[in-house]
Amino acid sequence: MKIPFTIEQFLQVFKDYNLSIWPGQIVFYVLGIVMIILTFKKKSYSNLVNNILLSFLWLWMGIVYHIIFFTTINKSAYLFGIFYIIQGILTLYFGVFRSKLTYHFTYNIYSLTGLFLISYALIFYPIIGFFAGHIYPSAPTFGLPCPTTIFTLGLFLLTDTKMPKYVLIIPLLWSLIGYSAAFNFGILEDIGLLISGIITTSLIIFRDRNTEKNLRNEKSTNA
After folding, report:
1. Cα–Cα distance measured from residue 78 to residue 9, given in angstroms and rounded to the nearest whole number
2. Distance CA 212, CA 62 (A)
3. DSSP code of 97?
4. pTM for this structure?
5. What is the spatial distance between Cα 179 and Cα 194, in angstroms, rounded to a whole number?
């Protein structure tokens, strides 16, 4: 499928967005760091705050980036924006109202992989982008779809209970859609987006199935 915009137009959207919201990028980094701290230092309000902040990020990307900025070069962004808004609502519903998204770091393959993805989103993503020639403000920053989706997937790997799979669908789909930018426009840092989508989904499904299996075994043993 032919992409309806050029690399120059694509990067110009990043530039327009970044210049318009400055210093919002700093605020988003602070929010990301707060979420990491709350995951490590478990407080009674940690999950509530994390899910509210995560929901806010997805609503922001849907409304501000996709619908206000990205639609100037791609009308499909209205649809993308709707999906991002849905993801924000799902995170709010399952995380805040149903308490189904709880986060805690433990020394296992899931948390360690999640921490790596979060580090990639916040640190290595912009570094790779810089050396690939994507210089601020014409570069995707944290708070924009691709790095924030990687961050979200990393955070999901830090969940410490079985999580509703509905909240995985849209981030996984975006990891596939967003990867097209890496392939078509040489956004090398977005290669990590595809990898994070596949790895996170696979690990969470495997983890939750193992958890269910262990619970069934415990019940049969105690019966």
Report:
1. 17
2. 34
3. I
4. 0.95
5. 6
**Are 33 and 152 within 8 A, CB to CB?**
no
**What does the alpha-carbon distance between residue 53 and residue 49 come to, in Å, rounded to a whole number?**
6
Confidence of residue 212 (pLDDT cuts 50, 70, 90): confident
Structure tokens at 14: 């990043």
Query: What's the token pair of residue 21?
Result: 């919201």
Q: What's the pLDDT tens digit per position in 13-53? A: 999 999 999 999 999 999 999 999 999 988 899 999 999 99
CA distances from 122 to 130, 144, 165, 218 (A): 13, 11, 25, 40
End-to-end CA distance of the chain: 57
DSSP string covering 102-125, please?
Answer: -B---SSHHHHHHHHHHHIIIIIH
